[in-house]
Amino acid sequence: MEIGKYCLHQEVIEEEILSRLPVKSLLRFRCVSKTWLSLIGSKRFIKAHHQNSIKNPCFPHQRLITLKNTRDRPEECSLQSLLSERPISRDSTDDLLMTTLLPFRIWGCYNGLFCVLEKSSKLPFVVEEKPRKIYLWNPSTRSSKKLPEISGPGFAKNYGFGWVESSDEYKVFVSVVDRNSKVGEVYSSKTKSWKTIELRADLVECCGDGVFAGGKLYWKRNGYEEYIIFLDLKSEEFGRIEIPFQQGWRSRSCLVGVVGGCLCVTYYNHGRPVQLWVMKESWKKVATLAHLVQLLLPLVVAQNREILVNCGSTLLVYDRGDNAFRSTKFCFRYRTRVYVESLISPEDV
After folding, report:
1. Does domain 56-348 match CATH 2.120.10.30?
2. Which residue numbers in the chain have pLDDT < 70?
3. How far apart are CA 125 and CA 117, in angstroms?
4. pLDDT at position 8, please?
5. Beta bridge partners of 184
6. Which pTM value belongs to this model?
7. Contact, 122 vs 103, CB < 8 A?
8. Which residue intervals of the chain bear CATH 2.120.10.30?
9. What is d(CA 23, CA 195) in angstroms, rounded to the nearest whole number?
10. Could you tell me if 315 and 309 are in contact, meaning their C-beta atoms sit under 8 angstroms apart?
11. What is the Rg, in whole angstroms, of the alpha carbon atoms belonging to the chain?
12. In the chain, which ranges are continuous DSSP H helix?
């Protein structure tokens, strides 16, 4: 009996330790024993590992991915190294899918999974793409799955990728536009298929990828009247929320993003410091980034009150205590993404 209790205790300890290790280590440890192979591949362990990775305040399992050029392989680095001022080591992604797909466009990422589109044009300034070859990709495990093709003609105008917590369901949204029609298509990981939904008329005035937070995809409507359009992925219905400042400013003075899992807005006006607002139950101004009068998007708010921001073509760290910036010396050409390493397989969603 004592031996049995000890073995059970050892199993619990092993699981607790393993669930805090990096994905690359866990992939190697699957070869240790059949027991570890079964444990590391179980849904319960994958969920526990992901939750531990998200909750760790030092970001040991979070990484940043970016493109220098649409025809180059993506580069990655540790988020921890960016915030700790250690030398930054860039790693080129040697994933076979990414090498095959180049050039490609990222439509969104969540829970360590990316939704990517193979670009039909190799020109970086071509925005409109036919939504044909769409993949779910996990850069940590180098696994991927091609989604069913969308039938019919048209170009992808708006798109996004997210997760419905209540049903543990991943969804991809794309608005497909041509001369004669404008339709919305939603892919569900539950049904493994696309369905057509009715589009909100003013969504076509927004471009690009929607940011995902709290079960919804968000786009900022451009033009004189600025507001945010959202798509609730659970109900598949559209709505609108107001932005937390005076209307009538130039659309380029405002950017919409996600920080800490919440919708956020940054804006500047007439040379004034940039303001950061976060939406929880209501809009709240959480920071005024002095000495900076250009567009930026926050990526991470660290426990020590530092904010990692995407500013132009470089990454800066803003210290709210000193009210000062420092450069990470990390430069790029296209938008960066922060993701959490995950064992979730695209084939299983």
Report:
1. yes
2. 1-9, 67-73, 85-103, 120-129, 246-252, 270-271, 291-295, 304, 331-334
3. 15
4. 53
5. 175, 197
6. 0.87
7. yes
8. 56-348
9. 34
10. yes
11. 21
12. 2-18, 23-29, 34-40, 43-55, 79-84, 96-101
Check residue 208 and give left, alpha or beta (phi > 0: left; psi -120 to 50: alpha): left
Q: Name beta bridge partners: 340.
A: 62
| 284 residue type, one letter | K
91-92: strand order across its sheet: 91-92, 75-78, 62-66, 337-340
Q: What integer pLDDT is reported at residue 303 of this predicted model?
A: 72
Distance CA 125, CA 132 (A): 19
pLDDT at 122: 52
Complete DSSP assignment for 36-70: HHHHHTSHHHHHHHHHHHHH-TT-TTEEEEE-SST
Sign of CA dihedral 99, 100, 102, 105: negative
Answer for the pair 134, 148: CB distance below 8 angstroms, yes or no. no
Phi then psi for residue 77, to 5 deg, are -155, 165
Residue type, 252: R
What's the token pair of residue 95? 């994933």
